[in-house]
Each structure stands twice: as structure tokens, then as C-alpha cells.
Amino acid sequence: MQTPDEARTRVASFEIFLTRFLDDDGRPLCRLPAAARRPQRLLHAYRLMARIRAFENKAVALQRTGQLGTYASGLGQEAVNAAIGLGLARDDVYLGNYRECGVPLARGVPMAQILQYWGGDERGMAWPRTVPAFHDFPFAVPVASQVPQALGVAYAMQLRHEKRATLVTCGDGASSKGDFAEAVSAAGVWKLPVVFVIINNQWAISLPRSRQCAAVTLAQKGLAGGIVGEQVDGNDLIATCHVIETALARARSGAGPQLVEALTYRLADHTTADDARRYRDAAEVDTARKHDPLARLHAWLEAQCGFTAQDETRLQAEVAAEVGVAVKTFLATPAPPPEALFDALYAELPPALHAQAFAAAGGGEA
Amino acid sequence: MQTPDEARTRVASFEIFLTRFLDDDGRPLCRLPAAARRPQRLLHAYRLMARIRAFENKAVALQRTGQLGTYASGLGQEAVNAAIGLGLARDDVYLGNYRECGVPLARGVPMAQILQYWGGDERGMAWPRTVPAFHDFPFAVPVASQVPQALGVAYAMQLRHEKRATLVTCGDGASSKGDFAEAVSAAGVWKLPVVFVIINNQWAISLPRSRQCAAVTLAQKGLAGGIVGEQVDGNDLIATCHVIETALARARSGAGPQLVEALTYRLADHTTADDARRYRDAAEVDTARKHDPLARLHAWLEAQCGFTAQDETRLQAEVAAEVGVAVKTFLATPAPPPEALFDALYAELPPALHAQAFAAAGGGEA
Amino acid sequence: MARRKAAEVTLVEAINLALHHEMARDENVVVLGEDVGANGGVFRATVGLQEKFGPGRVIDTPLAELLISAMAIGMATQGLKPVAEIQFSGFMYSCLDQLANHAARLRHRTHGRITCPMVIRAPNGGGIHAPEHHSESVEAFFAHVPGLRVVVPSTPARAYGLLLAAIRDPDPVVFLEPARCYRLFREAVADDGIAAPLDTCFVEREGTDLTLISWGGMMHEVRIAADQLAADGVDAEVIDVATLKPLDTQTLVASVAKTGRCVIVEESPRAGGWASEIAAELAEHAMMNLFAPIARVSGYDTIMPLARTEARFIPDVGRILSAVRKTLEIAPLG
Amino acid sequence: MARRKAAEVTLVEAINLALHHEMARDENVVVLGEDVGANGGVFRATVGLQEKFGPGRVIDTPLAELLISAMAIGMATQGLKPVAEIQFSGFMYSCLDQLANHAARLRHRTHGRITCPMVIRAPNGGGIHAPEHHSESVEAFFAHVPGLRVVVPSTPARAYGLLLAAIRDPDPVVFLEPARCYRLFREAVADDGIAAPLDTCFVEREGTDLTLISWGGMMHEVRIAADQLAADGVDAEVIDVATLKPLDTQTLVASVAKTGRCVIVEESPRAGGWASEIAAELAEHAMMNLFAPIARVSGYDTIMPLARTEARFIPDVGRILSAVRKTLEIAPLG
Ligand SMILES: Cc1ncc(C[n+]2csc(CCOP(=O)(O)OP(=O)(O)O)c2C)c(N)n1
Ligand SMILES: Cc1ncc(C[n+]2csc(CCOP(=O)(O)OP(=O)(O)O)c2C)c(N)n1
Ligand SMILES: [Mg+2]
Ligand SMILES: [Mg+2]
Which carries the bigger pLDDT value, residue A38 or residue D191? Predict the structure, then answer.
């Protein structure tokens, strides 16, 4: 007869995969997918990443000179932000957090508005009807709270038999919140058209990934909800585009939800109010810089697409000009008037609030 | 060169096992662990299960005759409740929910007090200092809320280098709540001495397990936190004792947390206020009855330990007598006085509440 | 449905009627929550909906209240009109983060780009001998949140009309139903699809001697108290607040200005209950008309007790009458 | 530490001092929260603690506020004295379920068998130009929960003494620190381990003409207003409520009975704010002594705005003075 240990039956088994196409020097590790070999596309992606980086750097500079509020830079995460921005179709809906400014930038939101938001003016989230991001959610600040909201969006798409997808990002830290787990689990139940992307930048303020969660990968959090989870090198633009496009296509086709863990690194302090030297080694950051997503794609473009130093200079100049204009517009925007407090609070301001609104506008004590 | 799909690296793999020792007719499927072969132990366990079942049946009967409030019967779940009650050491701490009355019963709580609680009297949770359950938590009614609390208990044990364990149960439904996921994840980080037991009775009121979560097993929810997860046939007392004892021993020894999914079935309505015929097939319940945990252990005892029909009759009579005495005590207990509202609200009643307490006691409007 | 005119229904049947009506009228209305489908809701408020409108629009969710509220938000942003049910209001705390940090602010944060027309409903209050944690009164938590509406019906007809209004409202509404009144009495309710006005108190009974203010489950005791007072020759004005937030202070002030006395009755714990908000508004805007202190009759600042003692917690007619008597004594009726 | 006498410290330094003191004095005290360890807390309230007391007692938690509150509960039941930090009060809604359904009731539910001596602290309120959701005022949500204490210090010395008292208290305490005052001014605080009394208001300044009542961050503006009033010959009594729950109504009533006028100042949105509770208590117990309506100066019933407009939301000295003036006008000083 079997021993008790032998009598155990295996009832399930799982594997988690990591996708990576380019090595740190931008050399291919495998034959690239067809889409990834189109130079125009890659140049377009590179330009987007350059725009995001220029924006991130400028935002921090503005904060340092007292012209912007606290800012959470996405430095180092440009590839995954760009991949998401490029993967999303106009009709898809995106929900993300404070550090993912790159996505709305990719989705047409004027730079000046993003600055306006971080400058402390709500109108920075009143995005124009004409941009693809128009239906995207405003930045989520309460960590992970956006994740279960994505399910409602995806549910509406499914109910209406639309071929659209919802994509929601959150951080490695966010994946510890119950909000995240409730969403992943329910997405599996209804096979909703939603793609969860954990942007694992290895830190949640001062907590390193290793002390955030004992799981080998965060991708395996999908298993808790019975959905596919996989890792991608989030600093490898080509791989990330491939994985995210595939996941979005699956979702749109009705094949169900997916979880992608994009491995990247937060090169900046948590925010401009933070000093990461208190809790993380300079050496670690130096190492991480070697995996810079822009450098890697740049190397590929040079090697494979004839991208030259002049091309780079021109690109940088264009991007700097765009940022410059945005900063001017931002700085020229006057503060909202006091009565803005009551703007769009309800569809119609309830009579109960008229006196307060009058007082706030300077009309006398409420 | 490899294709993109071949270039994916496997970074993790997992297996989930199910332990089952007895078949539905109580015949061994493997050589049983030594501890499980001690007839005295098994008889003791069987008696405990019989006590629990008698209690469950009487509680429902009392409710049906207007002598008890709404009651959530654990009918069919006696084996896992008994296994937990038996596995816990006196110094361990248990947290569970409304349906797990079997555990406090096993841990010495007087039946009359459990009835008192369900009869609408808080004093039913003021367990005597002398019983092993003294440090156990009161029943949790907000589903899953007890699970993260267990981490604090386990953390205290770890901090003090005690060789104690915390065990917390919750339902299959409860495993969808964020509370559960936050706890499992954090337990892994600190390797806390905590055992999570999901009592998967296949239903959360009207929602079947299949629509609660798309994961093949609930045990795999442990993977999200990087902790061991396994299944056990929760109607197989011997297997469940083995798995739970092993997990508790691991926890006490400092080897870390574990998740156990005990497969069982809710034979009763959700509560006495529920009518399960609205949403589940009679045929399913009939099938489930064939896996009755008491019948199975009874068959084993007859075959292996010389347990006779007279033994059974005597046991049932003893148990009925115990329940009868408890019911009498319960019914004879007067309602709490009105001022009990203010009892033990704070360590000392703040002066701000004196007037209210006076009024409640009939001394005039607060 | 539309043919069924002015049937005598209970409050919970009126809720069900309104849900049926609105789901038939507007295909964007969806219902979600625990056990709302085949089981028809633990209080039977959603009975028959899934049969009629299918599991796509009447959605049994996994056991996760935060998720339910968050999903409703996501749905609402897409033009659906979700009506989420939380099984008991004591399990709504998990929704507060989503409601306060998101539902209540999406319109404002985006200057109207994204809106959140959702309803989240739950049975509220005690008196039904339910298990622990099933008898909480939570209205004040939600009514403190700017951007939300909080509505509490007290009769079948108002439940029907106010729920329709809540679903049609373009902003988020927390709709708390007095569980104790679910089957307490019947009332003729015409299934005519006519919404009741939000943001307004209902003066149920006019009177000149004092104003009795309440909402939800306590209205029942207040009405009995008013009848007894009438028998004693005291002419009480009775107001059902109905929409707690935003609060129709004007109607309340007008009444108190007329009567000069008021007693506010609520079930929830006293400190920070909504009666305090009403008292504060009256103390600011009607004080000069008051002959007597503003009295509140509330639950105590204790844990809502289990079944055997809950009647001691919930204000009864006796406590209301004794507060009224005290109020009348202080400055005798002119 | 014990040698450091009456140093001039900021409010956040006083918090840190109290934590150091109590962790040294009582080995059962543990600190947990996000970034409280090596990083010393995002406001530096826990700086130096992990170095001194080790990572076992100064615990960096994963990012999960519900967990933090629930863990504190579990720890407290085992005789530890957890002091949990929530990074900003706007992220405390996730804790409400655990606090209201468990922490606040464990003692009562078990008739004293299980107790919950924990503190949960968070920076509260605006005025620091923080990002969205980082400037909320949440005291009223917690103060409505029976079984909790809610304490809000307004000076370094009170922060030190009240935090010690909160940690030593055998019941759960929500401790909300006015972020705006963390570094606003310094005050001499002796690190003498002497706790300040809980459950009592502090009459900071005696006066006869009217009573100014406030707590936390707004005390700063209230003190300036009182100074300006004094310069104008108006003698205001100033009360720092400090413990909002349970509320020391007696001290407030006594003051208002003396002055006959009062203005209550708070930062949180007006409807359902704690100023309403205080106004209600005064309207019930001090009305016959009042010469003028009870005035509240509060934040508006709007979403707490972003940095560029937040100063419009938070009551300023001007708004306080104009409410005072109105109060004084109605019935001129005797
Ligand atoms: C619910 C909640 N808790 C705490 C915070 C404060 N906070 C802001 S960002 C952050 C860390 C987030 O880490 P992660 O999810 O990894 O995202 P990252 O910042 O690295 O992009 C914390 C704790 C918050 N915004 N929301
Ligand atoms: C947070 C919360 N939500 C809802 C309820 C109402 N409710 C009580 S039991 C239950 C189902 C629980 O299912 P499961 O976790 O599988 O445990 P079981 O009842 O099957 O033992 C629900 C929804 C509750 N008590 N708590
Ligand atoms: Mg991170
Ligand atoms: Mg179950």
C-alpha cells in the first residue's frame, strides 16, 4: 500500500513564463515577432519614450524650482508606459496611477494638462473630447483602488458585446492590496476583457519587492483567480509591446482576462518629497541604470534601423520644444477661481449648497 | 534562432496536492499515518463529531420552534471542525466564523454559551477562563475579517519566540474578499506561524464554488503569497487531522505559514433564514450526503476498532443528554439587563456616557 | 408591470417593483450583488429580476463588497446604471473607500468628463432579531461624504418613487432601506414609473405645537407618537427627511420657525449621528425661533446589541414621547 | 531620551519623542505601517525607532491598510500595544470595517474576555500642498463609532502627552495628527513620560465674551483669531477639544453657559462634521444660555481641492472672525 505522502494526488500544476527579446545591449535573444520588425513602429515607440522621459525630467525640474507640486516620476519605466499607450486601441479604456503619466501622454493628453494637475489644479484632468484618452480614468492616487473599477468597465464592454478591452496598471506594492486580489479573482469568474499590468519597479516607496511579497513572481497572483499570469521584461520595449498587444487582442476576442507583470525599475526617488538614499543602495540604482529601456531600444535602432546620432539630436530637440511649449502654457494658466470648488460637484448644484457656493465665491459667510 | 514563443523562459512552476486517506465507505486508500491508527484517538474524534452534529441539529430545531435566533448550521462539516479542534494545542489561538461552532465546542466552550450567543445574548462569548478556547476569538460574522487579524496574533507569537500557532478558518466565499488575500500575502513575507484553513463547503449562500472563483483549487490562493497551499478531503477526518496537525507543527516550529483547503459540503441551508431549494439541486445534496464525514469514520471504526451498534447507541444517548442539559441551561438564562448595553464597552465607562447609561437603565431620558 | 396599479405592497415589494420597472424601461440599468440572482436577494428585494432580465444584467457577484462598489463605479462610467446591493449595511464599510475617494469625486475631479450615476442600496438598522453585525445604522458615515446623495425611504410609496429617482439621478446615491420596515405594513403603490423628488424633506403631517423630525425605520415610531400626541391635544408636525444628503434645511427650518420646538429621532448611535447635523443646522438657522432646546432621541453610543436587548437600544415611542414632553414643558404652549 | 528635558520641538518631533519614550518603557509597544522603518515614515514621525528597537518591533508592512488595522487588532489581543501608522488619513477608509466591526467591539462582544489596546495614527487635514487624496479630514467618520476614542492633538506638548495616554489606554484610539502643524511651530516639551488626560477638553484661554471651540490644525487659526479679537477688546474663551470621542460636553457647556455665544471651527466638510455634534450637544444642553445661534465655520461640502485652491477650502482667520462678528452682533455684548 502507498505511504500517506504517496497517496497525495496532484490536482493542479502551473508554470510562469518570462518574455524577453532584447538583451541589455539591445541585441535580439530570439527571432522577433513580425510586428516588432517594422522600423517605423519602433521609431515611433522610441520617440514616445523620449517624450515621456523629457516630460518626467522636466516635471521634476519644475518641482525643484517650486513651480510644480510633489511629483512621482516614472523615470526608467518609459518602455512599459509606451508599450501600453501603443497597444491600446482608441476605444479601449485605460486606468492607471499617479506614476503612469506616460500612458495619457501616449493617448493624446496635452502635456500642459498633466502639469496642470500636478500643479494642483483639477482642470488638468478635464481632458479634451478629441483625444483617445478621453474615456480613460483620471490618475488613481489611492493605491490599487483603480483595479477593481476596471472590472466594471470591462463588464460593460462584455455586456454590450463590444470588441474592446480594458487595461489597468498598478505597482508591485499595489498588488498587496485586497482591491487587487478581489478584482483578479472576479475577472476570472466572468472572463472579462481586462488586462491587468503590474508595473513591478521593485520598490513601493521604501519597501523592496522582496519584502512586499514572498511569491517568486507577482505574475502568479493571477493563479489565485484562475487567470493567466506572465512576466515580461518591462524595459524591453519590443517584448513588452508584444506581450501587451497579445493580451489585449485576447481580451478583445473574448478569450478572457490576463495578468502581466512587467519587470522594470524606479530610477527616481518615490516622489520629489522622498529621498531614496535613506533606504536603498546607490549600487543597486547604478546597476539598474544599465538596463535603461531607452538605451536598449536606441542600440537596436542604431544597429537595425540606421538610426543616427543626428536623428537622435533632432528628436531630442523636437521633444524639448514640445515640453517647452507645454511648460509655458502650464505656467500661464491662472489658478481656478474659488467657486471652482463647487464646479461639477453634482450634475446640478443642490440648493442645499447654494449658500456655501455663494460664500466661497466671496459673497459672505455660509 | 528561437521563435518568440520559444524564447519565453519558465521562471516558476507549482503543483497543488490533495490528501485523502479514506474512501467514501471508510476504506483506507493508503497506509495510514501512525497517529491515525490509534483507536482511542479516533473514537475521541468520532465522539466529538457526534457532539457537534447533535448540537447543530438541536440548534436548528430550537430556531424552528422560536427558541433561538437565526442559526448557521455546520451540518456536514463536522470532520474539519473536529480536526481543527483536536489539532490545536491549548496555547494556540483560533479565529473562525459563525459556522464553525464545532471548534469552540471542541475547545471546551460550554454548549449553553454558544446557544446563548445565537439566542441573542452577548454573554455567550464571555467564555470561561478555564477552557482552552479562552484566548480564541469570538465568531466573526463579517466574512473574512478574521483572517488578517490572525496575522497580528501570529506576529505576537513570533515576536516572543513562542512555539505556538494561530489557526484561522474561513469559507470558500470568504476567500474572495481582499481581507483574505492581504493576509495570505503578508503571512508569507514574515513567515508567520499561521495556518489558514479554507472550509470549502461549495457554497456561499447561493453562489456555487464554480462561480465564486475560476481557480481550479482554492489552495492555489496560497501561491499569490508565496506560501504552501494544499487540498484535503475535509470529510475524511483522518486525512484532515493529518494535514492540519502537520501544518500546525510546521507553524510552531518556525517553518512558516500554510494554506489548507478542506473540501466539504454544506448539507444544511445557509442559515435557518435561507431556503437552499431556491438555488441548488436536491440531487446535488443527495450526492453530497453520501460523503457524510460521520458515516465514513463510523465505517472505519466498525471495521478497524470494533466499534459496535451498542457503542453507537450509548454514544448517541450521552451526547443527547449533554445537549439536553445545555438547552435547559440556555433556556433558563434570563435576558441581559438593559444596562448591559454599557458593560465592557470601554475598560471604564467614560463620564460622557454616564447619562446615557443611566437613561438606558430606566433612569430617565439621556 | 405597468398595468399593475396601486397594489397594496410592502416596502421591500416596492423596491422590487421599482427595480423591475426601471430595468424594463432602461436597458442600461443593471443589478449586482451577492445572491441577487436565483436567490432573489436575502430579503427578496431582487426576486424575479434575473429570470426576466437575464444573468448579464442581474449579476451574482463573488463575496467582495469593495469589488461590488468598485465595479458599480466602473460600470457607471460606461453609461450603465448599476444598482448594487450590499447584503447588510454593516458590511458597507468596505465600500467607503471607493465611494468617498472615487464615486463621489469622479465628476468633480474630471470636471464632468467622467460621471458616476450609480446606486448602492442596503438594508439598514435593527429590530429584525438578526445575527450580530446585521443591524447597524450607517447613514451618517455616508452622509458626511461630499458628492454623495444619501436617501432613506420610510414607506413603500416613497421607497418606490425615491428608488426610481435615485437610479435616474446622474450622480451616486447611497440608498439605505429600513430592514425593520421591509414587511411592516402595506401601502397602495401605483407602478406608474413616477419618481419622487430627491433632496427634499416630506412634511407628512402639519402641526403647530412642535416638529418631529426623523427618517427611515424610526418614522414608524414617530407616527405612532404623533397620533398619541394628537389624542392628547398636541399638534405635532411630522417630517420625513428622506434625503439626508444634501439636506433640505429650508423645510426643516421653516417648520421649526413655525412650531418653535423640535425633537429629532434617529436609530443610529447618538454621537455624530445625522440627528446631530440637523440639530446643528437648526441651532444655526432657527435658534431665534426656538422655545426649547433641540432634543435628539437616538440610539446609545454603544455597540448595537444582539436580539435580546436590541429593543433597549432602538428608540421606542416611550422615549420619543418623554423627549416631547420635556420639550413642551420647558416653555409651555402659548 | 529621559535626560532630554523640555527641548523645543515640533509636533512631529513630539510624536517621535513619545514613540521613543513608550517603546523604551514598555516592550509590548510595537510600531507598524508603511515605510515606518528605515525610511522613518514619510513625515519622519517614526525616525530612529527601527534602529533602536529593531525590525521586530518597528515593522514595515506591505501596502495594505486593511491588513495594518487588522494586524494591530490581532496584536492587541495578545497583549502587545500596537501603534499603527496609516500614511495619510485619506487611506484610512479601508480600516473602518476592522475598526468599527472589530476593534471597537472586541471588549464588549466578549464581556472583557478579549481587549484591544491599540492606537492607529495618521496625518490628517490639508494645507501642505500635497497631492490629491492626501489632505482629507476624516475625524467624524471614526468619532461616530461607539467603542473608539478619537484624539486630535493641536500642539507639540499635547501631541506628546496625548499619544502617551493613547498608547497606555486599554482601548482602541484613533489618533489624528494635523499634518499642517507637523512643523508649523516649536514648543518646549519635556520628555518626562507624563501622559496628558484623555476624554477632556483643554480650556486654553479663558474669556467671557464668546467661546471658540476647535481642535487639531484649526486651533492655529483660532488662536490667531482670539488674539485679534483681544486686540479689539473681545475676550474669547478658547477650547481645544482634543478628545473628540468621547466628547467632554461638560466643559463645553460650562464655557458656553458662561459666555452665551460660541463659534465652532473645523476643517472637515460641514455636513456631518464633528462641529455639528458639538453644536447639537450645545443646542441641547446650553441653549437656554445662548444669546446667539451656534455658528460653525467648516470646510465646504465639496471635495477637498488640490493645492492651488485648498486655501479656499480650509477656514481661515477671516472666516472665523466674520462668524464671530455675526455672533456678537446678534445680541450685543451685555
Ligand atoms: C491606499 C494607499 N496607501 C498608501 C498610499 C501612499 N503611497 C503612495 S505610493 C505608495 C507606494 C506604491 O508602491 P507601488 O504600488 O509599487 O507603486 P510605485 O509607487 O512603485 O509606482 C504609497 C505607500 C497611497 N497612495 N494609497
Ligand atoms: C463581509 C460580509 N459580506 C456579506 C455577508 C453576508 N453573508 C454571510 S455568510 C455569507 C456567505 C459566506 O460564504 P462562505 O465564505 O463560503 O462561508 P459559508 O457560509 O459557506 O460557511 C454571506 C454573503 C457577511 N456576513 N459578511
Ligand atoms: Mg513599485
Ligand atoms: Mg461556503
Answer: D191
Helix/strand/coil for A146: helix
State yes or no: pLDDT of B324 exceeds 90: yes
Cα–ligand 2 centroid distance for B74 (angstroms): 13
Q: Which residues fall inside 5 Å of ion ligand 4, going by CB? A: B 171-172, 201, 204
Show which of residues 61-120 on chain C sit within 8 Å of chain A, judged by CB atoms. 61-62, 64, 66-67, 70-80, 82, 97-98, 101-102, 106-115
Cell of A274: 522622498
Per-residue confidence (pLDDT) for residue C330, from 0 to 100: 80
Question: Which residues of D are catalytically annotated?
Answer: 134
Enumerate the residues of chain B whose CB falls inside 8 A of the CB of residue D113: 125-127, 134
Pairs across B and D, CB distance < 8 A: 132
Q: Where are the beta strands (DSSP E) in chain C?
A: 7-9, 29-33, 58-60, 81-85, 119-124, 149-151, 173-178, 187-189, 202-205, 210-214, 236-240, 243-245, 262-269, 295-299
Residues 6+ apart with CB under 8 A from C236: C205, C207, C209, C210, C211, C212, C225, C226, C229, C230, C324
pLDDT tens digits for B60-113?
999 999 999 999 999 999 999 999 999 999 999 999 999 999 999 999 999 999
Q: Is the peptide bond before C178 cis (omega within 30 degrees of 0)?
A: no
Banded pLDDT at D4 (limits 50, 70, 90) = low
Select from B56, B98, B143 the residue to mutate for testing ligand 2; criterion: most ligand atoms less than 8 Å from CB.
Answer: B143
Q: What are the pocket residues of ligand 1 if the criterion is a CB atom closer than 6 Å to any ligand atom?
A: A 99, 141-143, 170-174, 201, 203-205, 266, 270; D 34, 63, 65, 87, 91
Q: Average of pLDDT values for B171-185?
A: 98
- From residue A349, alpha-carbon distances to A346, A365, C72, D303 in Å are 6, 18, 23, 13
Q: Alpha carbon A347 to chain centroid distance? A: 30
Assess whether pLDDT exceeds 90 at residue A26: no
3-state secondary structure of C84: strand
For A79-144, the three-class secondary structure string (H helix, E strand, C coil) is: HHHHHHHHHCCCCCEEECECCCCHHHHHCCCCHHHHHHHHCCCHHHHCCCCCCHHHHCCCCECCCC
CATH class, domain D7-190, is: alpha beta
pTM score of the predicted model: 0.98
The boundaries of every CATH 3.40.50.970 domain in chain D are 7-190
Residues of chain D with CATH 3.40.50.920: 202-329
Task: Place B255 in a pLDDT band, splitting at 50, 70 and 90.
Answer: very high
* DSSP letter (8 states) at residue D103: I
Instruction: Please report which confidence band the pLDDT of residue B365 belongs to, taking 50, 70 and 90 as the band edges.
Output: low
Distance (Å) from the alpha carbon of D194 to chain A's nearest alpha carbon = 32
Q: Do B13 and A9 touch (CB under 8 A)?
A: no
Backbone angles phi, psi at A107, to 5 degrees: -95, 20
CATH of D202-329, one of 3.40.50.920, 3.20.20.70, 1.20.1560.10, 3.90.1150.10: 3.40.50.920
Whole-number pLDDT of residue B250: 97
The pLDDT tens digits for A119-166 are 999 999 999 999 999 999 999 999 999 999 999 999 999 999 999 999
Contact B153, B159 (CB under 8 A): no
Ligand 2 neighbours (beta carbon < 6 A): B 99, 141-143, 170-174, 201, 203-205, 266, 270; C 34, 63, 65, 87, 91
One-letter-per-residue 3-state SS of B297-342: HHHHHHHHHCCCHHHHHHHHHHHHHHHHHHHHHHHHCCCCCHHHHH
> Which residues, including other chains, have CB under 8 Å from residue D57's CB and lie 6 or more apart?
B159, D23, D27, D29, D30, D31, D49
DSSP letter (8 states) at residue D298: E
pLDDT at A2 over 80: no
